[in-house]
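HUMAN: Forgive my ignorance: could you write out one protein's sequence and backbone structure tokens?

ASSISTANT:
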Amino acid sequence: MFNLPRYFRLGTICFVTVIVLLGVSCRRAEQLPSKSSREYNDIVRTFYIGLAALQVGHDVQADAKLQQFTTLAPDEPAGWANWGLLAFRQRNFDVAAERLERARTLAPQNDQIEYLIGLLESSRGRSTEAIAALRKAVEINPKNLIATYKLAEEVERQGDENSAAEYEQLIRKMLEAQPDNLAVLLELGRVAAKRGDVETLRRVTKTISERAATWPTEIQQQGNEVQSASSGSDAATRITFLRNMMLRVPEYRRDLSEIKPPPGEEAIPFTRFVRLETPKFSPAVADTELQFSTKTIDGFKIAASWIGAVSLDSKSGPTVVVANQREVQVGTAPSFSFPSGSSSAWPGPDAILPIDFNYDFKNDLVLAGAGGAVGRGDAGRGVVGGDAVDAAGGEAAALVGGGA
């Protein structure tokens, strides 16, 4: 006979388990709002402000906004990855590891996250862990040449008997993806020389020499020396010299950027969401009905030879700025002096530049005249800097500092 109470208890447990799982799923869905939801705009704004601050090195702003983003959207891996990248750049490795591991948990098959973890582990001196993460990145996305090259570098650094062979294997895979990449060709030639692979070295140097007609003469000569090298070790050394000289060739620098970012920029932030729907940015449709009309602007007390519209912040509309050889006026605010020097020269077309010195999302002004350059904080509100001598004209000028 069936034990009804027992089956009843089992059924109850299963029912409760399903309800709990559904509840967790609902909460996760709530933490990843749809594009049409009320919270989505706040999430997008916070993410991209944090990203912009991260890209320009405004660490305080980046930390605040990325932390806020992980609170608003805790299940979006891009926020945790960028926040971890910030800690990594600050060499706060333990915190970076925690944040990147959270990103990996949320997106276990994301090659960019694995690449960032590989960079982190390499910087911590944990080569085995770095290689494991980089291998996974390449396994997930074989077209990620930056991760592939970083893996090749880490493998070669091991220095064991299999390192050179695996390094060459990885370089060949990269060459399959980009057969004409000069940087990859040079690396293949270097490792072939180290391994005594004369035939591969010959093919590589021949290919490179065929493209060298427009290169500086000394670089062509170095390429000829590689071809005439008497031994593999000698050829490897000469290829290293050639690689350093090739940095002067725009074609080589372009190809190198495809596999290795510039120093200090190896850790690449996320510019798109991983799980959330990323907003689509596109230019507005052309307004073919747009018309312009002439209008007199009131409130200005100076006769101007320079006029322009400056956005003071991200919320207000453009403000008209006018200037002459003596003074500058922003909107209807009181005027301030223009650095025209003793010659009282009129400002030229490029005399005034709006720029955000201190990344506070409010424009400052740079005024350039015959008397030097002067910085005005937040588009004229407060002078920044101190007196100095302009080397070009010998006039005293206030040098640019940061926005007030």
The longest strand covers residues 364-369.
